[in-house]
Amino acid sequence: RGLGDVYKRQTPTNPWVINVAQMGNYCISERRPTQLWRARANSNQTLIINHMGKPKANSKTEWPAKTSTLVWPQDMPQLDGSTYLIRVKGSTSARKIVLHFIPGNLNNDAQRAGWMATKGCRKQAKMLLETAF
Questions:
Q1: In 19-121, where does DSSP find H-type helix?
Q2: Is the pLDDT reported for residue 118 higher than 60?
Q3: Which helix (H) or strand (E) holds 98?
Q4: What is the pTM for the complete model shown?
Q5: Do residues 94 and 85 lie in contact, with contact meaning Cβ atoms separated by under 8 Å?
């Protein structure tokens, strides 16, 4: 089995992390650092992120062993509505994600979850509601 198969069997419980093994839309807050998450943290790995829009950008970051979360690399711009390819070196393929910035004028988690669902961040919205109530 490839690393991708292992990653798919586990999912994060924090609605504010990006699962590097799952492609899709991710809603993030400008109020907190963007966190990346991996299921297996038993070894050092290299995280590779490619921004698919303009400006083109590439980032390569070492992800230390025993660390399941990693702050989004500072050398990679986070742009609303932008598409990125994320790959953990050694995995069989890259995952395409799209970032969406959550508006700051949403007053509570129910409003945020509703907005997130409209942007395709349904798993995050569900987790947010489950942890809020």
A1: 109-118
A2: yes
A3: strand 95-101
A4: 0.86
A5: yes
